[in-house]
Specification:
- By secondary structure, the chain is of the alpha+beta class.
- The protein has a four-stranded antiparallel β-sheet with strand order 1-2-3-4.
């Protein structure tokens, strides 16, 4: 390869990286996905209470929505609701689970 081909490759790479940076800036600037994030100061309605690995491909997840819990099996090709509308144990709140939820998300 000659020097011109190397220069063309570097210029194309810089152009693609600039496009990616510009798109990321536009998303942040105009808030294209801000409607999905909860508003600041509002209480979160959805949280993961606990997860358990069943095997290499499937996980059992306990999800809390408002005041109900749902037990779901997550696999590579499907999701199955095992039980819906479970009442959480007395005294359990989403705020009390926040440190444990952060630890689960860091894994």
């Amino acid at each position: 390869m000659n020097t011109g081909a190397y220069f063309q490759f570097v210029a194309a790479l810089a152009f693609v990286l600039a496009l990616i940076a510009g798109l990321a800036w536009a998303i942040r600037r105009f808030g294209l996905f801000s409607q999905m994030a909860p508003k600041l100061g509002s209480k979160r309605r959805l949280s993961i209470v606990e997860t358990l690995g069943l095997d290499a491909k499937r996980r059992l997840v306990l999800v809390r929505r408002d005041d109900k819990e749902h037990l779901v099996i997550l696999g590579p090709a499907s999701e199955t609701v095992v039980e819906a509308g479970i009442a959480p144990p007395p005294g359990a709140t989403a705020d009390a689970d926040a440190p444990r939820l952060e630890a689960i998300q860091k894994r």
